[in-house]
Write a structure and sequence with these properties.
324 residues; 44% helix; mainly alpha
């Protein structure tokens, strides 16, 4: 009778390790810096109240960080040719939020809490502030010392096919459900006209308006008004035109209705292999339903453990924008 009990305990321990990730765990700073998480939470909330755009900015920042050299805060490093200087990263809002939280944490617990962990916590807190569900963030990451603009080519792009998206996610140990779930983070935030305007003009000869045929015609007209052919390429447009400031599943309804702003997003509906997951988030009859907010937290935990540095790897930066 004793062996099965020991075996089940071992299996539970193994499952917990897989969820939390090697070297990270929930409550990593509970003794060394017990106020760390609350400092991050309060800092993000204070900045959010004056500028709600920091919520999608911090979420995107964490995602972009993890997809390049792992979740090591390399995106935060200043320099002439660092990740931070690139087109996908330079417009992101929230770098000052991380710096503010780091300053406060250093005053309370010098040299203990990594910038990578601050960013992971801030991303979670941003989702909560936009009415999403919370989740427990495993901590214990250390900061990287290298940041190269050229590495940003690894990021998923707005023109990527589903197969390319799958490959980029699979390379990080993330499956197709994680892909659809994490892209659902586009339920908050905006995109510049330059990232999708090509879909609106001279894209196809099969549509009367010349737009991408996967797009709803009325939606095309709306976007053309916001992004004229020769208009301001830097103008920002909501990625979720139904509830751009609320973290919910309406983004997937948009895809179903041909109202995905980015081509890579809309393709999740037109490709059969990813469409199933979109339908499950929408509660389509006959399919096993998925709760987007619940699954998002799970996929974020997986992503936030991609390529982490722990133990003696990397360092704990004193200032997030520069290596020690």
């Amino acid at each position: 009778m004793e062996t099965p009990t020991l075996l089940s305990l071992l299996l539970i321990a193994m499952a917990a390790a897989l969820v939390q990730g090697q070297g990270t765990r929930v409550g990593f700073y509970s003794r060394t810096c017990p106020r760390a998480e609350s400092i991050v939470q309060k800092t993000v909330k204070a900045h959010f109240q004056s500028n709600p755009a920091i919520a999608p900015g911090l979420l995107r920042m964490h995602f972009h960080d993890c997809f390049v050299r792992g979740c090591d805060a390399s995106i935060l490093i200043n320099g002439t040719s660092t990740e931070k200087t690139t087109i996908p990263n330079s417009p992101l809002k929230g770098y000052d939020v991380i710096d503010d939280a780091k300053t406060q944490i250093e005053a309370a617990c010098p040299g203990v809490v990594s910038c990578a962990d601050i960013l992971a916590l801030a991303a979670r807190d941003s989702v909560v502030l936009t009415k999403g569900l919370t989740w427990k963030v495993p901590t214990g990451r250390r900061d990287g010392r290298v940041s190269l603009a050229s590495d940003v080519n690894n990021l998923p792009g707005p023109r990527d096919s589903v197969e390319v998206q799958k490959k980029k996610f699979a390379d990080k140990g993330l499956n197709d459900q994680d892909l659809v779930t994490l892209v659902g983070g586009h339920t908050i935030g905006t995109a510049a006209c330059q990232t999708f305007r090509y879909r609106l003009y001279n894209f196809s000869t099969t549509t009367t308006n010349g737009a991408d045929p996967s797009m709803d015609a009325t939606f095309v007209t709306q976007l053309q008004a916001l992004c004229p052919a020769n208009g301001d390429a830097s103008r920002r447009v909501a990625l979720d035109t139904v509830s751009s400031n609320t973290f919910d599943a309406s983004f997937f309804t948009n895809l179903k209705n041909g109202r995905g702003v980015l081509e890579s997003d809309q393709r999740l509906w037109t490709d059969a292999s990813t469409k199933t997951f979109v339908q499950r988030f929408l509660g389509v009859r006959g399919l096993s339903g998925l709760n987007f907010n619940v699954e998002f937290g799970k996929s974020m935990v997986k992503m936030s453990n991609v390529g982490v540095k722990t133990g003696t790897e990397g360092e704990i930066r004193k200032v997030c924008s520069s290596v020690n």
